[in-house]
Structures are given as structure tokens and as C-alpha cells.
Input
Amino acid sequence: MKFDKVTLELQSRVAILTLNDPNTLNALDTAMLNGLTQALTHVAAPGTGARCLLLTGAGRGFCSGANLADQDGSGGSLDREDLGARLESHYHPILRQFRTLQMPIVVAVNGPAVGIGMSFALLGDMSFAARSAYFSQGFRHIGLVPDGGSTWLLPRLVGLARAKELSFLGEKLTAEKAFEWGLINRLCDDDVLLDDAMTCARNLADGPTVSLGLTRKLYAETLDNTYEQQLDLERRSQTQAGRTKDFVEGVTAFLEKRAPRFKGE
Output
């Protein structure tokens, strides 16, 4: 299924969402943002059969950030544009779509992830990166501040000191160093990146995806909640998970000493 500069394919209940403008290393422009909105809306719709999302990029790059030739989406003058307003109208709705998606997200970073492209690379519940990939907070090089939620994500993933280092210096962070820092979950040889990421995505898609979706929400809110608030959220989430058919199947399979057959219900 093709959208503007984005492709969407369903395999084994995994929705494979690919940023598809390899000539720009998948730089985000208005057309691609519109395509992402449409693709994510399709993935989230009931009846599509998707139970896990895998996000990657076409060609040699994951995402080189915002397309500077399309900053205002209409060819207007950059010095007259309210870039903050553009973030809120074009980028933030998509970031919120990813964050509220009720299924696990796997990200396969196959090349450079720069600027807001790095923010997209950090959206996964499980993140894989090819050895040749790298990350960069490139905002300082064009006189901008970090965006795409990176100032919220990075301190929580690698600590405040390293987050500041990435943003203030704008240096490349190799995939190997990103793995050492805990920024990604798996470091892969380039030729097996998608296979490894897809194996993980299939595993998640075959799992109890209602409870996995609730687990996403628990971890998304944990660092902003007090201990008591998180206990209450766990209680409410467990009530919901305990009413699923997958919970019944999981317990039944355990008692029968067989592998569970989850349906995401």
C-alpha cells in the first residue's frame, strides 16, 4: 500500500511502515508527513489485522531530518515562518499518533537518523540499528533547538549529561556507542538488520497485544507519575488486561503445558 513518500505492507500481522524518499535519505517534507498521517491512521483502524508496527527507511538512510527545502511547505521565506507553529501543525500530531498507538512499535534504523529523524528513531519499544547507522542531533548546525520530543526522550534514555552533549555538540553518535549508552536495544550487522527486527516484530505480533499496548502506556507515563499514581495506573491496566480472552488463553495454556495462542483480544 503506497502513500505519499511512505509505503505500508502487512506481513504476519506486522505493519511495515517505510519512509520512502531515498534520494533525500528520507528527509521529512509535507508530502511525507501527510503520508505518515494516513498510514498510521490506517494501521490503527479496527480490522486491519496489524498487531505490531515496524518502522524503517528505504535505501541508505533512516531519516535525515526535516527537508530544509520544504520548511514551510509552500516555498515561502524561511525568515517569516513560525517554525514552532509548523511543529504543532505538522509534526506533533504524528508523534502523538505513534505514542498513542495501541500496539508495540519496533524501529529498524538502517542508516543516518538526524535531527527530528533521530526523534523518530527513538519511538520504538524495541529499537534495532545497523552497525553503519548513526544518530545526530543536528539542530545546532542550523541554529535551531532540539525538537520532536528529543529533549524529553534523551534525558530519560541516556541521562541529562549525555543528552546535553548530543544536543550542544551535534556530533555523530555511532550505532555502537548508542548501544553502549542504552539508546537502542539491539546492534545488528547491516545485512541482517531487517530480518532481526522482523523476527522481533513477529514475536510481538503473536503475543497478547492488548496487554502489550497497555504496557506501552504504563512505561510512557511512568517517569511523570508518582509511585502511588503508577500503582493506580497498574491496577486499572491490570483490570483491563484481566478481562481479555488472551488472559484466559494464557492461563489455560500454562495449565495445559502448551504454547499459548494469543489473538489480541
Q: What stands out?
A: The first helix runs from residue 30 to 44. Residues 72-76 have pLDDT under 50 and may be disordered.
